[in-house]
Please model this.
Amino acid sequence: MNLLDGKHVSAKIKEDIKQEAAELTTKLGRKPHLVAILVGHDGGSETYVASKMRNCEQVGFESTNLHYEADITEEALLSKITEINQDPSVDGLIVQLPLPKHIDPEKVTEAIDYRKDVDGFHPINLGRMQRNLPCFIPATPYGILLMLEHYQIDTSGKKAVIIGRSNIVGSPMSILLARNANPGNCTVTLTHSRTTNLAQEVQDADIIVAAIGKKNFVTADMVKEGAIVIDVGINREVSDLTKSGYKLFGDVDFEAVAPKSSWITPVPGGVGLMTIVGLLKNTLEAAKGTFYTK
Ligand code: NDP
Model:
């Protein structure tokens, strides 16, 4: 078993980003700039946004966190997004999900200028990703690709089974691994809660991507010898053994599955750290105007 070590890979890529950001800052006369909009007081969301802001600072980006109360109207939020779209000093804009029930996340996603959509959720970016055109790729799948690339894992011709079909992880992952690209060229099966014989599907997989949100869902009997196992799940449990007061678990039963796998991501220390890197890379690209002419 080899570890797909998010700590090591993310630190290395962040060093490269930092260097590029410094060069770009000289060229542009300002730092690459990410704005995050956070609505309400969901503990998980506040932690994620704070971590994104901290990471921006580490690589020499400017970051702005616009935090609104949960009762902000949809209209006011959309108008703020329009304002940021038009602000030339902002390169990337993300709106942390989930949003309160009275705000339509689809409307919000589509309101963001696709050229600043560094989360890669806008339909234009999704369409371009499907066509293998330059675009912003959703941060988690992007981070996974960067990890596979770093370890020079050849995915071509492999059978990939993805568990979970969310818009932010499972579904884009299925598109990316099926593309005629490297990493890519997999034969992909996208599974979900209505899949029959899920265990059997997973047993056939050379690559397993678990993105469900259920602790230890993937057990050793579901994994064939030598499989590559990518665990996206982040499941929190209250714990008095850690400083933070909670402990994180993935969707994969790591202890039991690791000995059977050829490569595996730990939780924590795996995909979560790479997701941040995906976001930073997209923000850098947005600042460079590489994908879309400004
Ligand atoms: P969603 O809740 O949006 O989607 C979960 C998916 O899992 C759905 O497609 C659902 O199927 C499927 N599913 C649920 N139960 C089963 C089951 N018993 N059998 C098969 N499929 C099932 O989750 P996300 O994609 O947003 O997140 C998944 C996990 O990844 C969570 O733990 C989340 O915290 C974590 N995450 C981690 C990130 C990171 O950076 N590491 C980033 C984003 C998420 P259906 O569509 O049929 O309902």
In short: The first helix runs from residue 6 to 28.
